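Consider the tokenized backbone below.
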């Protein structure tokens, strides 16, 4: 029996095959490969989609977050040594961006039901050194809440979104990526909106921040050969921008299919040894990842693999247990650690068939 892939990128991109080929040929034939018409058009289209005044393309999602933080440092809103509250159970990129800019991550546990940063704990974590909160829309579920926004307003904190996993997600009719002061986006191929290589963007309504991000991403230069800031090189190339322009109009429809698959999993998985996440509603989750939880996670993963179902773990080692942050080895985050010890991500993608979903359900329900 054919393997059910966790994410079949070949089939996903084949949905748009002729248009992608035409777009890449258009770029090749143009003779212009960086900071050209495709990038300018994608930035405008993506800003319009997200609902912000500005979008600035960059090299990847990590750089998008680094650029936001560096820009705020250059603008005097942040200083090295300032604290940034961030979820303890996030992917390490969120934290790398903070430490790379000389800022101090303050790890906060998630809510056990939503798996998103716990607003109550955010309020408790604020100190006189806190200058920003970075929420991460993990698994495609909206992490924003009015409670977190109020904490930021009351304490004059920047609210930064890591929107790498939640393209198209909504909160009361507004898209994630437009809810805070600025947001970083990743277009890694496996994302809901994925390029054919690395890519990222920053979205914001702040023209001063957008201009600073653009300059920092271009070696610190806003005018050719004039360098006002110590920047770096992080630009979205023309081919990736052209590919993203092809795929963006289909994002909402592909997200709807992801939600349909999630609904099938939620209704069909009845094995008492499996814990399901909080159900997906129509707006606040684009199901980038469908996580389930099992005390014998590794045995479940092997069982599914032996039966032709590919799964992934997001993520096997939490950031505070990574060797690169060994100074945090004594810290304990029991909710985060349980998530990382028990989480298993089931296949979900816009090209997955209902028959494949049912096969996964049947296998899970038969697992003992």
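A designed sequence for it:
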């Amino acid at each position: 029996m054919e393997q059910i892939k966790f994410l079949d990128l070949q089939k996903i991109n084949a949905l748009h095959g002729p248009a992608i080929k035409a777009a890449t040929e258009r770029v090749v034939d143009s003779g212009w490969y960086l900071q050209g018409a495709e990038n300018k058009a994608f930035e405008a289209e993506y800003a319009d989609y997200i609902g912000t005044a500005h979008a600035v393309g960059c090299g990847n999602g990590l750089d998008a977050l680094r650029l936001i933080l560096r820009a705020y440092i250059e603008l005097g809103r942040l200083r090295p040594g300032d604290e940034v509250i961030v979820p303890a159970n996030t992917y390490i990129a969120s934290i790398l961006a903070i430490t790379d800019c000389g800022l101090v991550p303050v790890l906060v546990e998630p809510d056990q039901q939503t798996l998103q940063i716990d607003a109550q704990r955010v309020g408790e974590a604020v100190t006189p050194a806190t200058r920003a909160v970075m929420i991460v829309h993990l698994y495609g579920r909206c992490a924003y809440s009015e409670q977190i926004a109020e904490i930021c307003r009351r304490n004059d904190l920047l609210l930064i979104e890591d929107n790498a996993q939640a393209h198209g997600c909504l909160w009361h009719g507004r898209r994630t990526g437009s809810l805070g002061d600025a947001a970083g986006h990743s277009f890694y191929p496996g994302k809901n909106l994925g390029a054919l290589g690395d890519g990222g963007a920053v979205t914001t309504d702040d023209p001063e921040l957008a201009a600073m991000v653009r300059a920092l991403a271009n070696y610190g230069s806003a005018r050719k050969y004039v360098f006002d800031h110590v920047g770096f090189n992080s630009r979205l190339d023309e081919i990736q921008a052209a590919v993203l322009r092809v795929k963006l109009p289909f994002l909402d429809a592909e997200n709807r299919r992801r939600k349909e698959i999630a609904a099938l999993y939620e209704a069909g998985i009845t094995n008492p040894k499996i814990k399901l996440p909080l159900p997906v509603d129509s707006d606040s989750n684009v199901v980038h990842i469908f996580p389930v939880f099992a005390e014998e996670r590794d045995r479940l993963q092997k069982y599914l693999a032996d039966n032709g179902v590919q799964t992934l773990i997001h993520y096997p080692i939490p950031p505070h247990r990574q060797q690169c942050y060994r100074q945090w080895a004594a810290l304990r985050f029991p909710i985060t650690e349980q998530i990382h010890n028990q989480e298993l991500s089931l296949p979900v993608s816009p090209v997955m068939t209902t028959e494949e979903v049912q096969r996964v359900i049947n296998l899970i329900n038969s697992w003992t």
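DSSP finds 13 helices and eleven strands in the chain.
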